[in-house]
Amino acid sequence: MNKPDIAIVGGGLLGRLLAWRAAVGGLRVSLYEAHDRLGGQATAWVAGGMVTPQAEAVDAEPELVAMGRRSLSLWRGWLPALPKPVHYSESGTLLVWQRTDAGEARRFATLLRTRDPQANYQCLDAQQLAAKEPALENRFREALFLPGEAHVDNRQLLPVLADALDGLGAECHWNRRVEDAELPDASLVIDCRGKSAKSRWKEVRGVRGELVRLHAPGIELRHMIRLLHPRYSIYLIARPGGNLVVGATSVESDDCSPVSVRGALELLSAAYAVLPALGEARILELDCDCRPALPDNRPAIRYTPRLRLLEVNGLYRHGFLLSPAVVEEVLTILPQFLANPDSELAASPRWPSLGARKAALAGDRPSSPDGKEVLICR
Length: 378
Prior knowledge:
Layout: E1 6-9, H1 13-24, E2 29-32, E3 50-51, H2 53-56, H3 62-78, E4 88-89, E5 93-96, H4 102-115, E6 122-125, H5 126-132, E7 142-146, E8 150-152, H6 154-167, E9 171-173, E10 188-191, E11 205-215, E12 224-227, E13 234-239, E14 243-248, H7 261-274, E15 282-293, E16 300-304, E17 309-313, H8 319-339, E18 356-358, E19 375-377
Parallel strand pairs: 1-2, 1-10, 2-9, 5-12, 10-17
Antiparallel strand pairs: 3-8, 4-8, 5-7, 6-7, 11-14, 11-15, 12-13, 13-14, 16-17, 16-19, 18-19
């Protein structure tokens, strides 16, 4: 049997999405994942599935925002091609705040106008807010609406991607952990292990995210809701079946232990402040995980010729926002390395910050056998 063109190590969101699109493109693909096909151990399992480039523009670099907009377009085109439907909505984001936190809203709007030339938002009064989101009637005097932003049901998506790979004949090795010294036999190996790749990529760190899943069948949200608050910045997202996801932004910590009492109280108290009707909701789950990040909080690609190893990491808390754009970029450069495994990683014409640059810390980066520095796709 011929060896695969690519072997992808790590079957979370990025690994599954890359494997699927590569198989759609006609490549022979094998996927290795340390856990099961459901995806319950993946970082993407503990996520809101948000694709919100405008909301992120306040903190993210312009190029990441542009990548997010590209991902929006790709999600729109890719999801209908899956073998089963996955819940996806582009209904937009509503940002709300308490009267005492009006300064946070002014700051957000100012930064958005300054940092995103394509910013498109609407200021709503109480009446307009109630018409757009009846669940918030009489709750807030003002709101900002960011149209077109999306969310995808992460827990539907992961197993459906596994089904898609089966349908395309890809080799999926579930519950199969791959060690650094035992890479699969393939023309090219792609490491998408995220935080599990820290043994090879020393700069990878964890950024903790927490969420609570609620069952609230009497509450219908038409949009994603974000609370602007100097400390308790949360989001609320509706899921099919009367469920809601309530999540926090991020905490600089590698700690993946269960949610603390204080963390749970902060999440639930902030959610209750937005929607008091949640007082009768049922708590289905409290969970957390650590997202993989690099020092500059940007994704990166690097290549080691002697191992025929391409590594993709550092999506930070932007997994659903950036994964399609990153996958598209990886698929663009794959033919180069499949045709000539000894070639160097070149700069990206589409995303300049993903262009090649020399390693700053040789001790944390692989080097080629002839002593030349390996270029990093950043």
